[in-house]
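Field reference: sequence -> structure
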Amino acid sequence: MGYFLAHLTRCLAIAEALKQRGHEIGFLCVEKDQALLAHNGYEAFPVYSPAPDDVVAFSAPYHYQKRYLGAVFNKISEKIFKIKKMIEEEQLIYQRFKPDLVIFSGKLTVPFTASVNEILAVGISNLSMLVDNQPACNVSSDVAGQMTIELQFQKELAPLLGHAVLQSDKCQLYLKLIAMIVPGLPVFENKAALPVVGCPALHFVGPLYWSGWDAMPQPDISKYRHKIVILVTLGSTFPFPALVDLVLAAFCGDNYRIIINMGGPFLYKVTRPVDNYEVLPAICLRAFLAISHVVIHHGGHGTTMEVLRAGLPRVMIPFNGDQIDIADQVEKFGCGISLRKYPADVSQDELKNAVDKVLRNPAYAQGAKRFKDELAHWPDSGMMAAQLIEAHYARAQQALLKHSHSSQSA
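Structure field:
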């Protein structure tokens, strides 16, 4: 799995179900997650993964990348992601752990290294796209062909694994046998933007929920009575923590209570002397959603699905490619408003007007309720994913056997 929190919790949700079904689980992880994984009873192998600053703009629109990366963007063609190091460490772990199946999330080298090593693989992803058809964003015609961070990633990856993939029919077969677990609903996901390695089978399982969230802090309900509760949750991939200052300025009245949930590398530091908010870096999100009236968030897929499950209206300020796609889907179904501009350019009035609109117009709550009602009857997503993975593995084994017989006959 990759660096960010969504990668960790999605993998843990599926690992818990697979463990219950008797499978041995190991984790190829970043160093920061090793202690948590060991605490939860898993063997963890820390390996190199690009730091957040290297990949947080991945699949953001071209002009967003150029502005966010600044001077770095002008030298993007010289950027080294250390993909060779990633490949070597992944292959070393395969040799040590000897997996029958690799499940990957947010680690773009893994489907290729697994296939080269003739190991079956299953991905976990949503509206974002894998490296073979990046960039995820719609690059406008006037900048088409310009280097972007994902194209530079491709440029570095291709000579290291491209030859091995192209020269091996067996490797290409393993790539074609990759399936994708989609932690969302078929009606919500934009199938045209789903990750593609070949034409993978897509299995929609609904929001993947890690049980560890239930041990996180829960709200003291008495603190929020008779208040308009605004939950601000910007995930671990949104690199604009100063946006919280904008929220505090827009909703400074005594009738508001603001809950700020931020984790990962982009932590918010208090700079405004107001007293109607609290900063909570790790919470039981479902419990806090239950006492909230509206959510301001970045358009991350995990947060989006949980807000849909809670049936709440929201205002989104997306930054990178899949967040923008997700915000489009949310607006399409009338569940919230997306402020479509570079996050640092959003004004206090724009934010306040958007929040007031989704609170006062019942159509937004009604749009969200559609998904709340559907998800209320959704089966356990982790267990569904585990069963789908087992079934896919059996089918893939049969396909490999058929291919072997055909090769022998030829």
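Note: The longest strand covers residues 228-233.
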